[in-house]
């Protein structure tokens, strides 16, 4: 533990983006600076447990990273000395610039790094990987395990992403005007995707990956601290907290999915619920209401209900109606149809689902929702068929087991009676 009671690994993770930002801000060369920073973090993780944490751990890391960057640049220069551009490179010792750990723009460094990692030249998969590596401080091996791909594959993805950022020539500075708003939207979308993958894994044996959800929440808190007046930033953090609050109750002892109607709500994270409701309550009256704020408002309605039977479905349906106006997409309409079904009866929802067969025909969430509503009407055979179709379309083992169990027990009186039966099968994207 550090003198402030913080674990060294937590301290390193929180310092990683600030150290990288300081090094890039002074020396440039994002790709090599990222490698140098990772080596500095590794050196700290190896030495600090025995030697103790330095009085100024950030300055220590910056010094080590700068020295390593010098070595990397000299190696790169030696390899490319016959190329014209090598003459334009300068080593850190040649720069006449303020100290890399100066306090001036340091508060913006993490945000600038997020903007760089979410550069529009990168694919969403590359944006996610680079964000987790450069800002999240995760190792390539950790990111590979989280997304169930070989480490070599993730290494290539991150290497290509860093090269693309370098080739783009984007300066290490906050973009201005419309470009800033657009890039912030990309940052929030990437954090949202990271959280969604943690909340319901697209594949694998586990329903959820807590490490990814936790990292998304941590990064959203960072952005919220840097942009406290932005309503959509507050909305995204609130949405994550209100959704993740149900984590402990979402799976049984064997890891099996537990739908919201059957969850023990006393196991929900009350602190997360209170914080999320406070955030969205404060954000909604200010300025334009965006999609993350509306989704957070929907999650708040779910979380404040004392039981599934007490859920205000008409309010949820109305909020989804607003969300369709702000950012309509097939999954939003799917969630709206389920809410309408819970408010006005399954037939009303089924009628709305018919329009989604084209865009969501291969998405398990549509068939899971249809199965649920057909089961509510008592139409057993089509409900069973829809459950089996949904099970065949998801790569997540726990979802498969849940959906197949529903198909096997189609005649039983029990079943998911509330929206998170879609609630764990349907994610708004």
Automatic annotation (TrEMBL):
Family: Belongs to the sigma-70 factor family. ECF subfamily.
Annotated ranges, domain RNA polymerase sigma factor 70 region 4 type: 114-164
Protein name from the UniProt record: RNA polymerase sigma factor (Sigma-70 family)
Domain DUF6596 as annotated: residue spans: 183-283
Pfam families: DUF6596, Sigma70_r2, Sigma70_r4_2
Gene Ontology MF: a single term: DNA binding
This protein's UniProt keywords: Sigma factor, Transcription, Transcription regulation
Organism: Phytomonospora endophytica
Single biological process term from Gene Ontology: DNA-templated transcription initiation
Residue span, RNA polymerase sigma-70 region domain: 11-77
InterPro entries assigned: DUF6596, RNA_pol_sigma-70_dom, RNA_pol_sigma70_r2, RNA_pol_sigma70_r4_t2, RNA_pol_sigma_r2, RNA_pol_sigma_r3/r4-like, WH-like_DNA-bd_sf
